[in-house]
Amino acid sequence: MDWLFKYADPSIDWNYAMITLVVRFIGVFVVMLVMQVALQIASRVVRRIEAPDEAATLASAPGAAAQIAAPAAGAATGGEASVAADGLDAATAAAIGVALALESRPAPTAGVSANSSSSWASAGRYHQLNRIPRRS
Predict the structure, then answer these.
(1) Is the pTM above the cut of 0.70?
(2) Distance (Å, rounded) from C-alpha 39 to C-alpha 66?
C-alpha cells in the first residue's frame, strides 16, 4: 500500500471531497422530490378549479340528457335510436362508418408489395451499401 501513498497528493482533503460529492448526489434527488410534490399540488389545484366548469358545461348543454341516454337506448334497440338521436338517417350513418373504416386502413402501395422491392429501390440500396467513402 505504500505505492498508493507515493502517488497521492497530500494537499487534497479527501474527506471534504467525498462528503461534498455525497451531499450533491443526495441533493439532486431532494430537489427532484420537491419539484414532484410541487407539481402534484399544482395539478390538484387545477383539477379543483376546472372540475366545476366541466360539470356546469355538461349540465347546461341543450339535450345533454338525451345525448347521455342515447347510447343506452341504441344498444337496446339495435342502434336505430342512437342514429335518430344524432339527427342522422341510416344512409348517412353508413357512409360515415365506411369512411372511417377506409381512413383507418393503411394506404395501398403503388404496385409494390411489402416483400419485394422495385428495381429503383434495389439500385438505390446497392449504391448506398457499396459506396466508396470520400477521402478528406
Answers:
(1) no
(2) 38
Angle, CA of 124, 129 and 132, to the nearest 5°: 110
Q: CB-hemisphere CA count at 13 Å for 73?
A: 13
Torsion from C-alpha of 26, 28, 30, 35, nearest 10 degrees? -170
Question: Which one of 54-58, 67-71, 124-128 scores highest in mean pLDDT?
Answer: 124-128
Kindly give, in sequence order, each residue whose CB lies less than 8 Å from that of residue 65, ignoring residues fewer than 6 positions away: none
For residue 66, give the nearest of 52, 51, 87, 94 by alpha carbon: 87
66 Cβ contact list (under 8 Å, min separation 6):
85
C-alpha cell at 84: 335518430
Separation of alpha carbons 115 and 127, rounded Å: 20
